Description:
With about 230 residues, this protein is α/β, with parallel strands linked by helices. It has a single domain (about 5-160, about 175-234), classed as Vaccinia Virus protein VP39 (Rossmann fold), CATH 3.40.50. About 25% of the residues lie in helices and about 30% in strands. The chain is built from six helices and twelve strands. It has helices at about 5-15, 45-55, 70-75, 90-95, 135-145, 205-210, and strands at about 20-25, 30-35, 60-65, 80-85, 105, 115-120, 145-155, 180-190, 190, 195-200, 215-225, 225-234. Strands 5-4-3-6-7-12-11 form a seven-stranded mixed β-sheet, with helices on both faces. Helix 1 packs parallel to helix 4 (about 90-95). The radius of gyration is 18 Å and the shape is globular. GO terms for molecular function: methyltransferase activity.
Amino acid sequence: MKDLMGKAVWDYFHNENPEDLQTETSISELDELPVNYLFRDFEEMNGIEQKALELAQGKVLDIGAGAGSHALYLQNERDLDVLALDISPKSIEVCQLRGIKKAVCENMLNFSGETFDTVLLLMNGTGIFESLEKIDTYLQKLHTLVSDNGQIIIDSTDILYMFDRDEDGGVYIPAGGYYGELDYIVHYKGESEDPIKWLYLDFETLKNAAENNGLTIEKVMQDEDSYLAKLIKK
């Protein structure tokens, strides 16, 4: 991994000629992602993110923390015990430089030894699951990270709207797999990351997977095609 997302975060934090990131998927064209978007404060975040942060309580694990904006808010404004976790070394360095007391560079599947009252996966948190084939592995891991009375707060988007429809309202979905399984590619300063598997989940599919892995699920919020869900151990 070239850690291009981390490089952009690092450049922005240090004012080292940062440029906008570019992202694309296997079903969408190149799109600009301004790096300052990753440094938003609470007031600049969308309603789903704000609601998720309001629901957080106790000891918190922020998976896919990025530049640390969610963790920083919970630590400084909510006075919660937060651990920021990300696979990007540069992003975790910036988290530490921004004042996050606990920040670890690790894949969540390899992270262990602690349990948390709240586990956060935001900004399409289901993306980290990679594919339907691997969702059980990730949900079982989350089951071990959350305390008995704890909660997993996660968001995603049903991307069915991105596919063409016929005159009768039927949707043209390519054959071979679930429509939310995408390849996701990041570009920065002329370099390209290798494609990663990224999963967008409709709520019913997430609900079925959660219940099959010993978790109950509640849809907390819906915003157009995106939603926020809370999962707890049965």
